[in-house]
Structure formats: C-alpha cells, structure tokens
Design brief:
Layout: E1 2-6, H1 22-42, E2 47-50, H2 62-72, E3 79-82, H3 95-103, E4 108-110, E5 116-118, E6 126-131, E7 157-163, H4 182-187, E8 192-196, E9 212-213, E10 230-236, E11 242-248, E12 253-261, H5 267-270, E13 282-292, H6 294-310, E14 314-323, H7 327-333, H8 339-350, H9 353-367
Parallel strand pairs: 1-2, 2-3, 3-4, 6-7, 7-8, 8-9, 12-13, 13-14
Antiparallel strand pairs: 1-10, 5-6, 10-11
Helix pairs in contact: 1-2, 2-3, 8-9
C-alpha cells in the first residue's frame, strides 16, 4: 500500500503583502494540490491524507471550495482523508465544511471528530486515529480523547493524524496552537503519526526513524519557509514497515540572504546571481550591511531600483548601509580647522568607525 501524506496547503491564502504577485502565489497553492493528486495517482496510492489546514481560513470563498473538491475528486485511489486544522477548524454549523460536503465525492472523508476511524469499509486496511482542531487557538491538544492502542490486529496499519505545534520542533512560544510532544504521540502506540501545522518537513532524513512525521507545506508561503514545497510518499511493506520518501512539490521559493558590503565590493557582481534564470520563481529578501563611499552609494541605489523593477520579486533592505566618511568627504563638506572638521578628522585617525558615523549623522541633523 502507498500513501501520500500532505498538510498545510492553505488554499485561499490572499498574500496581500505581495500585491504585484498576489495572483501567482495564491494560484500556486492550487497547482501544488493538483501536483500532489497527479503524483498520488501515478504512484497508485490507496490513501491521500491531509493533516490539517487544507484551507487558509474558515471564510474562504465558495469558488475556492468548489475548485478544491474538484481537484480532490480526481484522486483515483480508495480514499482522501482530511483533518480540520487550526485555520480551517471544524465547528457545528460552520459554512466551510457544509459547503465542502456538498461537492466532495464519496471517497473524501472529513475527520471532524476526535476518534478512531476504521477505513476498511473504504478499502484500506487502516485504523486512523484523528485529533482535529475545533478552534483557531487552544492550549490543549486533541489527543486527550484517544486511548493508547492495546490490542493490535497484525493485518491492520495504525496511523494517527493530528494538527498542532510539536515541542522542540515548532515555534509556539505561548503554547497557543494545540501544543503536543513526541512522547505523547509515541505513548499511543501507533505505527506512525502524521502531524500538520509546522511548515517545514520533519525528519530531515528519509531513513530516520520517528514516531511521527511532518509533511511541511507543499507550497512555501514566506521567508521563514526555506524549502521548495514538501510532502511525504509512504510505502507500507507486507509486514507493515513504513518507508518514506520526501517529495518536492512547490512552484515558488522564498530566499533570504544577509550580505556585507564595503568600498571594495563589486556591486554588479554581488547581485549577478539574482538575474539567473533559475531565480525566476524565487522571492528574494536581501539585507545589506556595511559602509560605502558616496559615489558607490549612488550606484547601489540605482542598482536596487533597477533590480526591484526588473526581477520577479526581490526586496533589498539597505537601511544598514552607511555612507563611508572619508578624509576627502570631510575636506569637501566642512571648513578646515572648524570643530566638526577637527572632530571627524580625529575620529578617522583613531579608526573609531562607529563613533565617526554617529558624529557625522548628528552633524547632518544639525545642518539640516
């Protein structure tokens, strides 16, 4: 049996902070789902599992819901099982999942209750423990109502699906996102847990043994997501051992780089890599730091403007680039022998660049 395990597609995400590429980024999330379905069909997967946050919020448009169910209904395996996450949580009377149910096929199962689902009536010899979310925030995870496995049928595979932060892996400083630990999952005695919420895949190595796996998001959604979109392909051997293969699933990438520059930097060469065709689908964030002479500051600003206008998406932050205060600059701007002149020349001789920059900035404010 083969299983495709995914999570955190966040369909309907608006990307309002990226107006010039908003439509492309939003559409790429549906492309990722289509790509997952095509992979699952090509690999002849019996199960397609989604561990929460299929949708970005409970108020996504009916059009996006219909588009999603249309894609899910293209799965040729035995069952799609999906778990409500904290962004698309299940609540009785909620419009999201009611509208979803109207167009979802009979091979799509919503795991809306905290219980054990027997999937054998659908075909897979699997018992699936589900820990769905019923709100956006909670300091209590959904595992409490699930009892540890005591009697095992060797013909069955025992899987769990949960959504929430994992201690030591996820960022959740206040414990507001259904926090859980690996030990809690392991104590339930299942063959494997698939856990959504964290957008980076876990474990890093395919052969690494773990009581749980995190698929990661199939399409990156920000600069804190350094991979190109991930999911897991699971293959279950006849003796119920699970082999996993990491899948690359996304279209766009987010890349952040910190660059130190100085008077000797070749600015054109420094940014040449961002013009590479391979960067066409990369959203780049560049933080610059250093000091440049005035003529190079002018070149840098012109280069930044040209890059930001010509490339798909690049943000260059030069707020930490200061103008280099040189003897020639002091000679040009201040009267020889004046207090500012003597102060700046003295700091240059002392080599105290921070004090020099601070003094020059103060003098600039006074002159303004």
């Amino acid at each position: 049996m083969k299983i495709l395990a995914a999570a955190d597609l966040h369909l309907g995400m608006k990307f309002s902070g990226y107006p010039e590429v908003q439509a492309q980024l939003s559409g790429a999330r549906f492309t990722a789902l289509k790509r997952l379905i095509e992979t699952a069909n090509r690999e002849e997967c019996s199960l397609f599992l989604i561990a929460g946050d299929l949708f970005d919020r409970v108020t996504v448009s009916r059009k996006d819901i219909m588009r999603t169910t249309s894609l899910l209904n293209e799965f040729q395996g035995e069952l799609v099982a999906l778990l409500p996450g904290n962004h698309d949580f299940f609540s009785s009377g909620g419009a999201l999942w009611q509208n979803f149910a109207e167009s979802a096929g009979d091979r799509v199962l919503l795991l809306k209750k905290q219980q054990v689902y027997d999937l054998q009536p659908y075909g897979p010899t699997v018992k699936l423990y589900a820990a769905p979310c019923s709100s956006k925030h909670s300091r209590v995870n959904g595992l409490a109502g699930l009892s540890p496995l005591k009697e095992r049928d060797e013909k069955l595979l025992y899987l769990g699906m949960a959504h929430g932060s994992l201690a030591g892996i996820s960022f959740d400083s206040q414990g507001d996102y259904f926090p859980m630990t690996g030990e809690e999952l392991e104590k339930l005695g299942l063959d494997l847990w698939i856990v959504g919420h964290t957008h980076n895949q876990y474990p890093a190595a395919e052969r690494e043994e773990a009581a749980f796996i995190i698929p990661g998001t199939p399409e990156p959604d920000g600069f804190d997501c350094r991979h190109g979109g991930k999911a897991w392909l699971l293959e279950v051997t006849p003796d119920n051992k699970i082999k996993k293969k990491s899948l690359n699933t996304g279209t766009y990438r987010f890349s952040r780089e910190d660059i130190e520059i100085n008077a000797d930097s070749d600015l054109e060469e420094l940014f040449s890599g961002y013009r590479d065709p391979d960067m066409a689908n990369t959203l780049s964030g560049v933080n610059l730091k250093g000091r440049l002479p005035r003529e190079k500051m002018t070149i840098l600003r012109k280069l930044i403007k040209e890059l930001e206008e010509s490339l798909f998406r690049i943000r260059i932050n030069d707020s930490q680039v200061a103008e280099e205060i040189t003897p020639d600059l002091v000679d040009h701007e201040f009267t020889q022998g004046s207090f500012p002149y003597l102060l700046l020349k003295g700091l240059i001789e002392d080599g105290d660049m921070e004090a020099l920059q601070a003094a020059y900035s103060l003098l600039e404010e006074v002159r303004a």
